Amino acid sequence: DTRDEQQVIGGSSLHQLVAIVLVGLSVALMVVMIFQAVRQELSLRHLKTRMGENSAEVKKKEEAIMEVKNKIKDMRDTLTSVNTKLDELKKKKAESETSAGELGKSLQTCNTEKKKEDMASAITKLHADHEVLKKKAEEDIQSLKQQILDRDKAICAFVDTTKEEARKLCGIPEASK
Q1: What torsion, rounded to 10 degrees, do the Cα atoms 165, 167, 170, 171 define?
Q2: Distance in angstroms (rounded) separating the CA atoms of residues 81 and 155
Q3: Helix (H, G, I), strand (E, B), or coil: what is residue 171?
Q4: Mean pLDDT of 58-87
Q5: What's 9-68 look like in SS3?
Q6: Alpha carbons 42 and 143: distance in angstroms, whole number
Q7: Torsion of CA 135, 141, 142, 144, to 10 degrees
Q8: In terms of domain of life, where is this protein from (predicted)?
Q9: 125 by DSSP, 3-state: which?
Q10: Average pLDDT over all residues of the chain
Q11: Rg of the Cα trace of the chain?
């Protein structure tokens, strides 16, 4: 009986030892699993935090990109507007140059016509002045002729009409002999 008891006691202590070892292993395994779970939880929290920060950074960068895109769009619109105005100004400049050229030609034509008219007017005035001077000269010549005739008549009144030369000068017909 004692042997059986010893075997049972011995078997029971073996069972107890196995049970203690199993409990110890179970506790150790539990501690390792809890440690792993806590470590994974901390790692997940850290990843979640980094993901949130990265997400916020991505949003900020997306907003910055959108702002830059809007600025680029505004600049393109402004550039288009400026190019349109530049084209309009180029057209106006070309029109102004064309107009200036036409006005220059018109001015040159006008100056040429004015010179012609001035020349014609000067010629007409010169001709009129010439006619006036010619008329005055003819009147002066006529007056001088008249003075000469009057003087000749006065001289002829005192000339000896018996001489042939004096009669010729005074226009007296020859006296019959």
Answers
A1: -110
A2: 105
A3: coil
A4: 97
A5: HHHHHHHHHHHHHHHHHHHHHHHHHHHHHHHHHHHHHHHHHHHHHHHHHHHHHHHHHHHH
A6: 144
A7: 140
A8: Eukaryota
A9: helix
A10: 89
A11: 71
Q: Is a pLDDT exceeding 90 seen at residue 23?
A: yes
How many residues make up the chain in this entry?
177
For residues 144 and 150, the answer to whether their CB atoms sit within 8 Å is no
Q: Which residue pairs, CB below 8 angstroms and at least 24 apart, start in 77-81?
A: none
**Token pair of 52, please?**
């949130």
| Alpha carbon distance 47, 41 (integer Å) | 10
Check whether 144 has a pLDDT greater than 80: yes
Q: Output the CA–CA distances (angstroms, integers) from residue 43 to 29, 31, 38, 56, 138, in the order listed.
A: 21, 18, 8, 20, 136
Q: What is the mean pLDDT of residues 124-143?
A: 92
Least confident of 34-48, 71-85, 93-107, 160-174: 160-174
Q: How far apart are CA 99 and CA 93, in angstroms?
A: 10
